[in-house]
């Protein structure tokens, strides 16, 4: 039995869950999300609790069991609370600002980089060196953060670049420091 898949999902007040034959849709105060379900998985809703079960013990059904339970749990959390992820920009002259639906990033290149903000996401800047990405879909929030970070990943010698706020950079000693 899957340790993650067997856990029930509590549905908070204000969130409604509709289960179709091959899809689950969740509607809440922040928006609406839906997810297609594989044929070997059965989703049921009773008394504000969602349970995910597998129809057989095939390898495919066992691997999907925990996956779909976590995807549905992320949808419930997303439409009720939302997800946020923060990025920190380190470096002399490195900064970020939001103008309309674009994020302007000065990351030490000759021209500023324009990152177009998706309609599902909200990107704000807390000062010139902190970017906060928020939305209801955890996958889209994570993907946007990964794309912004990939524009200038942190380097290990001086720590310059874009990093996640909770990320720790392992620093290296330069040529002059190693003897």
Summarize the helices and strands and which ones pair or pack.
Blueprint: E1 9-10, E2 16-19, E3 23-28, E4 31-36, E5 41-46, E6 49-54, H1 59-80, E7 83-90, E8 95-99, E9 102-106, E10 113-116, E11 121-125, E12 130-135, H2 138-150, E13 161-164
Antiparallel strand pairs: 1-6, 2-3, 3-4, 5-6, 7-12, 7-13, 8-9, 9-10, 11-12
Explain what this protein looks like in three dimensions.
The protein is α+β, with helices and mostly antiparallel strands and 179 residues long. The protein folds into two domains: 9-80, Alpha-Beta Complex (Outer Surface Protein A, domain 3); 83-164, Alpha-Beta Complex (Outer Surface Protein A, domain 3), CATH 3.90.930. Helix content is 20%, strand content 37%. It contains two helices and 13 strands; from the N terminus they run E-E-E-E-E-E-H-E-E-E-E-E-E-H-E. It has helices at residues 59-80, 138-150; strands at 9-10, 16-19, 23-28, 31-36, 41-46, 49-54, 83-90, 95-99, 102-106, 113-116, 121-125, 130-135, 161-164. Strands 11-12-7-13 form a four-stranded antiparallel β-sheet, with helices on one face. A three-stranded antiparallel β-sheet has the order 1-6-5. Strand 11 and strand 12 form a beta hairpin. The protein is elongated. The mean pLDDT is 93.
The tally of strands reads 13
H/E series? EEEEEEHEEEEEEHE
Poorly predicted residue ranges: none
Please write the CATH class name of the largest domain.
Alpha Beta
CATH architecture of the largest domain: Alpha-Beta Complex
Counting helices, strands and paired strands, the structural category is alpha+beta
CATH structural fold name of the largest domain: Outer Surface Protein A, domain 3
Q: What number is the mean pLDDT?
A: 93
Question: What amount of the residues lies in strands?
Answer: 35-45%
DSSP helical segment count: 2
Fourth-level CATH superfamily of the largest domain? Ribosomal protein L6
Largest sheet entry: 4 strands, antiparallel
Radius of gyration over all CA atoms, rounded: 21 Å
In spatial order, strands of the major sheet run 11-12-7-13
Note the gap between the termini: 55 Å
Helix content: 10-25%
Please tell me what the overall shape is: elongated
């Amino acid at each position: 039995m899957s340790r993650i898949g067997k856990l029930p999902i509590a549905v908070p007040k204000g969130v409604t869950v509709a289960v179709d034959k091959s899809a689950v849709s969740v509607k809440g105060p922040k928006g609406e999300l839906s997810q297609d379900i594989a044929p070997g998985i059965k989703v049921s809703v009773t008394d504000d609790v969602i349970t995910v079960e597998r129809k057989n013990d095939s390898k495919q059904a066992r691997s999907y069991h925990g996956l779909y339970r976590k995807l549905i749990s992320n949808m419930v959390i997303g439409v009720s609370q939302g997800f946020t992820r923060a990025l920190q920009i380190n470096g002399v002259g490195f900064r970020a600002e939001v103008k309309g639906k674009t994020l302007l990033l000065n990351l030490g290149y000759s021209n500023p980089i324009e990152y177009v903000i998706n309609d599902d996401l909200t990107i704000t800047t807390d000062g010139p060196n902190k970017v906060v990405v928020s939305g209801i879909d955890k996958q889209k929030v994570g993907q946007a953060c990964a794309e912004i970070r990939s524009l200038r990943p942190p380097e290990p010698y001086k720590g310059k670049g874009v990093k996640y706020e909770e990320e720790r950079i392992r620093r290296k000693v330069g040529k002059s420091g190693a003897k």
